[in-house]
Specification:
This protein has about 500 residues and is mainly α. The chain has helices at about 10-60, 65-70, 75-80, 85-110, 140-175, 180-190, 195-220, 240-250, 255-290, 295-310, 310-320, 325-335, 350-375, 380-390, 395-420, 425-430, 450-460, 460-485, 490, and strands at about 120-125, 130-135. The chain starts with 10 loop residues before the first helix and ends in a 6-residue tail after the last helix.
């Protein structure tokens, strides 16, 4: 609750009070998030329990055809003239059995060992040349085993709905209700089930290009996949929590202290990169939209043109421009303003400040465009009423513009924040995450994502990189869920403020 003293504060004191209150609420937001986890797990367990109860009912109350669906998917549906659904279930079962027999089962059976023989020497009887025949590939065994597990889960899901549907059709027939025809079933996928038809292909793409690689990365963290184990030439094995012990232990290349420094800088960078771009982009948009400003289209066009230039080109140019012997340092020395080059990208403190400033340069135009579209939709009557009541421009901004913008753009801010947590381009293209720390594989401006890249590409530390990837995912997921669920965009979806 805000007491009466709040209304006696100056506008700047109120702003400081709101910022302070925001940071005080962050711990409680995280506490509320973790407190809600048991409830979510209980709901998930209730759903599983309900599924098992339905299967028990089908086994107890189902007739011969419903029970036959336990073995031959779709049998009960075909018996009730649900030919389309029944045949699709049956074909899915046939495809699953063939997949397990000829492909998936072979890899899944080797998942426990991840292979026993990598390759054998074979002598060509004609030329006498020794060649290698590859037997087991740990990488493929792990990848296809994970895929097979997902396919088994999908089969179990389809099998359950096959049994549940058979029981439902039996009950409808026993109560002498009309059963849906083939035409009605087919038509439903363009009507009430249209969302399933529309999302089928995107969901498959999401699974193969996001979910499957994510789970593969998580599982790799529990192996010794790294230097000296390069498939298919070599095999890697299960290593349990050894990689986690290395990351949280006292290693040289990877350590808990190094992870803490990189994580802290990642969060600091994401905060300043997000809110500096957002606030400055909003102010630029407000300035251009003010009455009396001439050549509005010209200023917008100039800012938009900076977006049209590919980001990697701009960043590589700035990397050379700000280099130790780059154009800027040479000009400043020729003009006599400095006696030695400024370490824009080679000193830790300078590099961090430089990266934030360069990110403002490339990010403000995009934020300006987002804010411009929203500002044009704020009712002009609100500002007119504020002026009639004697409100200053700053007070109108704090009471009308800023609340409206935050209400509409909170999901955008959260997206930008999470994107900056994983902003590979700006960091790596400017200075490669440098300057390097005295010990270890991370640099002073490395984010978790760039450090992960170095561990995999430069050091072949795949298992350790997977641990970093898991921790990056946890940080990103927790921040996005907590901030989004606590925002007014979710709590007051139907309200202006």
């Amino acid at each position: 609750m805000i007491d009466l003293e709040y209304f006696k504060m100056s506008p700047f004191e109120k702003l400081r009070f709101k910022i302070k209150r925001f940071f005080k609420r962050i711990p409680s937001a995280f506490a509320a998030f973790f407190k809600a986890i048991p409830k979510k797990l209980y709901k998930l367990w209730s759903a599983f329990a309900g599924a098992f109860l339905n299967i028990g009912r089908a086994a107890k109350e189902g007739d011969m055809w419903t029970r036959s669906s336990f073995v031959v998917m779709g049998a009960g549906l075909v018996r009730r003239k649900q030919y389309l659904r029944g045949i699709l279930y049956f074909l899915f079962e046939v495809a699953f059995v063939l997949y397990m027999v000829f492909f998936g089962g072979r890899y899944l059976s080797k998942m426990g060992s991840l292979g026993t023989v990598a390759r054998v020497e074979v002598v060509d009887p004609l030329t006498g040349v020794i060649k290698y025949e590859y037997i087991d590939d740990s990488f493929l065994i792990l990848l296809y085993s994970i895929l097979t597990i997902f396919i088994i889960i999908a089969f179990a899901y389809m099998w359950y709905h096959n049994v549940k549907g058979s029981l439902l059709m039996q009950q409808l027939k026993e109560t002498k209700q009309n059963l849906p025809t083939v035409k009605q079933n087919f038509k439903s996928y363009g009507d009430e089930n249209y969302h399933k038809s529309l999302l089928a292909v995107p969901m498959l793409g999401l699974f193969f290009f996001t979910v499957l690689p994510l789970f593969f990365m998580i599982i790799v963290a529990f192996t010794n996949y790294g230097p000296g184990t390069k498939p298919p030439k070599d095999l890697f094995q299960w290593a349990g929590f050894e990689s986690f012990k290395i990351v949280f232990g006292g290693g040289v290349d990877v350590s808990a202290n190094m992870f803490g420094q990189v994580l802290l800088w990642t969060i600091v960078w994401a905060f300043f990169a997000t809110f500096s771009n957002y606030v400055l982009g909003m102010l630029v948009a407000i300035l251009i939209n003010r009455k009396g400003i001439k050549f509005k289209k010209l200023w917008r066009t100039i800012l938009v043109m900076t977006i049209a230039i590919p980001q990697f080109v701009s960043l590589l140019f700035m990397s050379q421009f700000l280099a130790h012997q780059g154009l800027l340092n040479n000009l400043l020395q020729e003009w006599g303003w400095i006696t030695k080059p400024i370490p824009f990208l080679t000193d830790g403190t300078f590099a961090r400040a430089t990266i934030i400033i360069v990110n403002i340069w490339i990010g403000v135009p995009f934020s300006m465009l987002i804010c411009t579209g929203i500002l044009m939709n704020i009712p002009a009557d609100l500002y007119e009423s504020a002026r009639m009541d004697g409100a200053s421009p700053f007070r109108a901004y704090m009471k009308i513009t800023l609340p409206y913008m935050l209400q509409v753009t909170t999901p955008y801010i959260i997206t930008q924040f999470i994107g900056n947590l994983n902003n590979f381009n700006v960091i790596y293209l400017l200075n490669g995450g440098g300057p390097d720390m005295i010990e270890g594989t991370a640099g002073k401006t490395d984010l978790l994502i760039t450090w992960l890249y170095k561990l995999t590409v430069n050091n072949d530390r795949f298992a350790d990189a997977s641990v970093i990837g898991i921790l990056t995912f946890i940080v990103s997921a927790v921040f996005s869920l907590v901030l989004y669920n606590r925002s007014k965009s979710v709590k007051n979806e139907e309200e202006f403020m």
